[in-house]
Amino acid sequence: MAVPALAIPRDATVAVVGAGTMGGGIAQVAAQAGHRVRLFDTRLGAAEKMRASIGETLKGYDASTLYGVLAPARTPRPIITTLHAEIVKILGVVETRDRLLAQGFEPVGGTPAEFGTYIKAEIAKWAKVIKAAGIKPE
User: Fold this and answer.
1) Is the pLDDT confidence value at 99 over 90?
2) 105: pLDDT confidence band, cut at 50, 70 and 90?
3) Residue 37 has pLDDT above 60, yes or no
4) At 17, which helix (H) or strand (E)?
5) Residue 63 has pLDDT above 80, yes or no
6) Domain 1-65: which topology?
7) Which of 98, 112, 103 is nearest to 90 (CA)?
8) Which is nearest to 25 in space by CA: 1, 2, 42?
9) Residue 36 is inside which H or E element, if any?
10) CB 111 within 8 A of CB 118
């Protein structure tokens, strides 16, 4: 049964399975109505392509998934340096990289400083969204 986007509670998350033409359209309508949207597809890269397409239509839309490794605050710099070097080495192994790519991941292996800058920017960006939406901690 189809439910009009406006009938869905504003704080609801809309899950769309299948990033084809219809799924992408549903995701876009839900996003335009102000809902959080989770888009899933089993085809490699299909969901990312649709997210990019929606992003072209909805100016300012930029939400993607990123995985990284964090260490506790005040971890000594030599430990961070060693951990980073080993992770980059592992991401450089052809079998590891191929397996990650087959699962839909894009291994990057940036520097700890780049990741820290990214995290700070994301916190600032989403803090504005949270404030504008009036979201309160539960």
Assistant:
1) no
2) confident
3) yes
4) strand 13-17
5) no
6) Rossmann fold (3.40.50)
7) 98
8) 2
9) strand 36-40
10) no
